[in-house]
């Protein structure tokens, strides 16, 4: 593969630099960590970045701390059969090619869903909520049709999915669902197909999955709340889900909040620590999920079901649920302040482009 030279890093480079290199060389899907003699020391993939974030590593973290220092490699002498076997065994689509001294001389890849630009996997867009926290704006229009700048929130999501090669969409509807159907129709104007899941009564963020016709769905499917703005690559999300195994993947965003007081720790009636206005970090639910068919089939639709309850049930049953941390832009348009911020963010991007 050509262009691999642009996807190289050194041990002293940071995770932030790795993110930039991976984004600029998205087709390659891998960054190669080398020394001054071009000897391969390790590799960094999008999955390595996500796992580092889960460990609360910051963007200033040296790549040496997050890279795979024992990556699978091949030599120029290796045949297609061996290369194919290594790729299948390791579930990877890119392999560094090294000489006998371990010096990188190339990168070999195979066509995959990640780079082909088209995915069969189905998407479920949750667009049935009442949007009460956005009153009075949502008294006469469903929240997904509220415009951010000149485009409805849900249309921005559909545009992004179509551009990334996802063409099979489901939309769950309830509150003023007819307006959404009238706006999107069959989806052909966005080069997608849309099948509507119409809830007679609110079924919750997971309950609507009971309306998915599995004969028309391709799994694993991605579920997205219809009031989000984000720049994540959904193909990479799918790849991560398949690499990690498990029955579900939950996208999370690191959230910081500062306690506006001095926190006092007390042990046995005595002060043991005083921490002035500490900042706490945690991961919050980002409203994007990947679900295997086995999970979707457990949703019967007999009662409202929240996605968090569905996933909590899986965890309690010792099923593997992965966390996919988002470092890209992400905003949940839950209330008026977030709606104003979203509008401002879009206007700023337009001004800078």
What does this structure look like?
It is a single chain. The chain has 353 residues and is α/β, with parallel strands linked by helices. It has two domains: 4-110, CBS-domain (Roll), CATH 3.10.580.10; 115-352, Alpha-Beta Complex (Spore Coat Polysaccharide Biosynthesis Protein SpsA, Chain A), CATH 3.90.550.10. Helix content is 28%, strand content 29%. The strands form six sheets. A seven-stranded mixed β-sheet has the order 11-10-7-12-17-14-18, with helices on both faces. β15 (262-267) and β16 form a beta hairpin. The chain is globular. The protein starts with 7 loop residues before the first strand and ends with a helix.
Strand content: 25-35%
- The H/E string reads EHEEHEHEEHEEEHEHEHEEHEEEEHHEEH
Q: Could you estimate the helical fraction of the residues in percent?
A: 25-40%
Structurally, how many domains make up the residues?
Answer: 2
Strand order of the largest sheet: 11-10-7-12-17-14-18
| Rg from Cα | 23 Å
Query: What is the general shape?
Result: globular
- The CATH class name of the largest domain reads Alpha Beta
Oligomer: single chain
Tell me, rounded to a whole number, the average pLDDT.
91
In DSSP terms, counting alpha (H) and pi (I) runs of 4 or more, how many helices? 11
Major beta sheet, specifics? 7 strands, mixed
SS content category: alpha/beta
Organism: marine metagenome
Protein name: CBS domain-containing protein
Domain CBS: 1-63
